[in-house]
Amino acid sequence: MTDRPQLHAAASRAQLIRATELRAAPWKNGGGVTREIVCEPPGAGYDTFLWRISVADVERPGPFSRFPEIDRSIVLLRGGPMLLLTGDGGAYEGGVHERGGAHASSGANENGNIHELGRWEPWHFAGEAAVSAQLPAGPTRDFNVMSRRGAIAARITVQQLPQTLVLGSSSGIRTNTGTDAGIGTGTGTGTGTGTGTGTAILYCAAGTCAVTPLDADWPDAAGLPAARARLELSEGDTLRLDMVAGTALTLAVDMAEPAARLIDVRLEASEPRTDTARDTQAATDNSAITGTGNDISTTTEATT
């Protein structure tokens, strides 16, 4: 009898992060609380991380912190809508409302755009952009993905129905100089893509989601079941899988109730882009959130 294939042949590392393990860090301005889920490299500061994923409770309106050379994506989890005001003024009067008509809000810049962010709709923006949030219906909670421009591309999908996910990597997560980012194993040379690792983050955003490997066993990792047993993720739980380049892993995803949602984030190395290319991709990504099939909202690449 042949041995059952092992998941670590395709995934160099797995990590289960329960919601109860996350620690709340209040903002200095008192406007909210952030819970970091995972950061790469671990413990990196804002000037050195390659990517970072977190959940934030926004308790009052105000400007977003600016992060030069960082691409950002947010998904509204609770509350809302959230009005995202873009432009140097940070708040606007008579700005263009992206869901139709004009929206009046306090501020001095009449040329700013206002995007009404509803639940489960990924929205992407450059970290150095002037963005401010208003909360017409009160406090909100949102899911945040940050990736370093020119080094990492983040793809985000919000899943709402049972389906099969294929995880894989064709390129490595590494810096532009080809230095391995320290995720699992792999190397790269030069700029752009090469051999190495890619990472999948599966975040249970609502309800209960179950994940079962179809073509390999779970690896030995704290909290993971044996063999190919079903893994249940409660709201706020996260499963991280670091993939070996050129391999694939198939997972069956089940939702325990109709309201359950799973956010699927894929992180891989990316080619450096010009500002024009980045802005073009931003328009494409933010206009492609209506979703098809089993996805409530999809994006191609969070590089705005």
From TrEMBL:
State which residue ranges cross the membrane: none
At the top level of its lineage, which domain of life is listed?
A: Bacteria
In this record, what's one Pfam family? HutD
Region described as Disordered: spans on this chain: 271-304
Q: State where composition is biased (Polar residues).
A: 286-304
Concerning CDD domains, the annotation shows:
cupin_HutD_N (cd20293)
Q: What is this protein called?
A: Histidine utilization protein HutD
Organism annotation: Candidimonas nitroreducens
Q: What lineage, starting at the top, does this entry show? A: Bacteria, Pseudomonadati, Pseudomonadota, Betaproteobacteria, Burkholderiales
